[in-house]
Amino acid sequence: MDCYTANWNPLGDSAFYRKYELYSMDWDLKEELRDCLVAAAPYGGPIALLRNPWRKEKAASVRPVLDIYSASGMPLASLLWKSGPVVSLGWSAEEELLCVQEDGVVLVYGLHGDFRRHFSMGNEVLQNRVLDARIFHTEFGSGVAILTGAHRFTLSANVGDLKLRRMPEVPGLQSAPSCWTTLCQDRVAHILLAVGPDLYLLDHATCSTVTPPGLAPGVSSFLQMAVSFTYRHLALFTDTGYIWMGTASLKEKLCEFNCNIRAPPKQMVWCSRPRSKERAVVVAWEKRLMVVGDAPESIQFVLDEDSYLVPELDGVRIFSRSIHEFLHEVPVASEEIFKIASMAPGALLLEAQKEYEKESQKADEYLREIQELGQLTQAVQQCIEAAGHEHRPDMQKSLLRAASFGKCFLDRFPPDGFVRMCQDLRVLNAIRDYHIGIPLTYSQYKQLTIQVLLDRLVLRRLYPLAIQICEYLRLPEVQGVSRILAHWACYKVQQKDVSDEDVARAINQKLGDTPGVSYSDIAARAYGCGRTELAIKLLEYEPRSGEQVPLLLKMKRSKLALSKAIESGDTDLVFTVLLHLKNELNRGDFFMTLRNQPMALSLYRQFCKHQELETLKDLYNQDDNHQELGSFHIRASYAAEERIEGRVAALQTAADAFYKAKNEFAAKATEDQMRLLRLQRRLEDELGGQFLDLSLHDTVTTLILGGHNKRAEQLARDFRIPDKRLWWLKLTALADLEDWEELEKFSKSKKSPIGYLPFVEICMKQHNKYEAKKYASRVGPEQKVKALLLVGDVAQAADVAIERRNEAELSLVLSHCTGATDGATADKIQRARAQAQKK
């Protein structure tokens, strides 16, 4: 344990800091880091280097090269820079490289050097050029802040949703600030800058002067400033050699340290651990690295090479041409276990396990001591926690073995934490491998989440490792393996040296029917790469027509899209394709396409019936469908034409169409309608009133109601209305008029073709029993009982039923008898029944 703590450095009495090697860099740099623009992404992210040929002492004719490496120095991409001078580099939260040019244009590159997009920071930046730039991260995304040649600031808090904000002008600012940085307070990005001894805070509307509380006197300039990884704390380096540390709101001072060095540092970053009360700042000069905090002493390291600092969530990464290291505060669990002469439960348990492996009785002594204090559970938890913070696998195993050993003596220790830590460490060790080059710590891994880590492995095209992690952690397929396979397939379609057939077959063999994989998304990526035929082949594997059709339309394969839509049976999808085809093709080609697809033609006709009647007529004409064309003209005659002449002309066209269709019934009916319309117009002219658009029956009824009986009879003869129908019409009309005298004359005009029971029924409907009785006596024997019952003459109805000896009529009369008034009639019927049965 003494050897293990050899690289521990105390900062005050309460914290230790250690620096250990992550990788031995083998990237064969031809330039010193000081001669390059450098950007390293947090969370063990990649490193970008751009040799700066725009420096005055360098040859301007030399084209720069942009190199991207993993954190272990493995090359990921290299490209010749052909654009304008670059002022600053930075990585977004999605691990996209942002290159800020002098003209204010920001170029965005992928991890493998693929150009993604570009955007401009505005005309003002273009006119005044860029002096300096910062890439920063907020909860909304990654932002860019620009300092222009006019000493004005412009920023965007989220490059994914670009909204430029021009910050207020600093009064009297004639030269560039000595240092500046971005702060995030209350979900808003601010600019903090130093001009001489003054600090200015810029928000979206105001410029205010701020003063750090408790700052040592005599400061005439601020040389460097640094904001913490979480934007909660701020450090200021003054020209007096003092480092002030406090909250980012500049309302509270944490501490102040005199480093006795007045030269401006190359870099200054925070080094703090989540949930730790210790605060420290790492300051780097050419050959010296200093860790300062709330203690009178500092920790100093000698830098043998030009180095670069990368602030992290729980420490600082330091890399040079030959080595990549990590500096951080020793976690509490590790400190308690490995501190010299520690009697912490975890330390005793680790010793007990080591003695157990030696088969020494001291193991029992250590174990009993822990148990007597009741701290065995705490000891196991300490060992598990400390294992997570160890970088070396041998130390991880040693601590986990100790935890496992201690668990054996506990009855109800939940195993979940131990199992989860073993899984997490296995994943972390896999991604920390030199060939992978993602040196995440346990704290960073938990903050990043497994889903983001998988996304970053996919971004590096490490698909097999990502799938192995998903299978090992047993993640749901949709979140794990399926998603990774989909990304692999999208990358596969970009390999243009492989034939479309081979790529499609390989993707289908690998993916099959994997749930959560959308072949349409993969096909869209293939189409975006200019491989249309491959996209069509991939769409053949897509089971959902709703996903196939939109992409086929986008690829100008409308006829194939129509076939797919029809196969799906989804009418909405068919309509979508039809409307697209209509706009894409000329009318003749569109109609010819429809003729080859009967279902589509039928659906389009339905659409035209409601939306485009003229197009519907053209369809019928092209198909020589005279029957439907005739029906179309009939509907059109009533829908569009108001003048009688136009309506009759449309009906005549319809009749001609019906004759061509050899539908003589429809043609004759149409001609009769034309005659009726002409007659109705004549009736309106001669008699007044409303006749147009009435049916033939309603026209006759209207004439009768108006007292024009002879005209009604003539109309009936002209249109060959049967006598029975005419008598019904006249009977109903006269009853509605309550013209009983005319009705009686009408009934006596000749023998009724409908009988006289309807007269009785109509009179009773009008509640006129007196008139009804007149006709009841004229009703034939077969219907007389019913007529007498309608007028309420139950006794006479009984006599007729008895006389006719009709059992059904007897039962009908009996059902109308009431006990109080018709008792004698009921008895009479019963006696008649009895006599009939005797016979």
Keywords:
about 20% strand, single chain, alpha+beta, 5-stranded antiparallel beta sheet, 4-stranded antiparallel beta sheet, elongated, Methylamine Dehydrogenase, Chain H
Give the biggest beta sheet. 5 strands, antiparallel
Distinct helical segment count: 33
Shape, please?
Answer: elongated
Could you tell me the mean pLDDT? 84
Helical/strand content category: alpha+beta
Radius of gyration (CA) equals: 48 Å
Weakly predicted, low-confidence segments: none
The strand order across the widest sheet is 1-2-29-28-27
Number of strands: 29
- The N- and C-terminal alpha carbons lie at a distance of 130 Å
Q: Helix share of residues?
A: 40-55%
Determine the strand fraction and express it as a percent band. Answer: 15-25%
Brief account:
With 839 residues, the chain is of the alpha+beta class.
Provide structural commentary.
This protein has 839 residues and is an alpha+beta fold. Among the domains are: 31-210, Methylamine Dehydrogenase, Chain H, CATH 2.130.10.10; 340-584, no CATH class. It has 33 helices and 29 strands. It has a 5-stranded antiparallel β-sheet with strand order 1-2-29-28-27, with no helix packed on it. A 4-stranded antiparallel β-sheet has the order 3-4-5-6, with no helix packed on it. The protein has a 4-stranded antiparallel β-sheet with strand order 7-8-9-10, with no helix packed on it. It is elongated. The termini are far apart. The mean pLDDT is 84. Belongs to the VPS16 family. Residues 517-835 form the Vps16 C-terminal domain. It comes from Myotis myotis. Residues 4-420 form the Vps16 N-terminal domain.
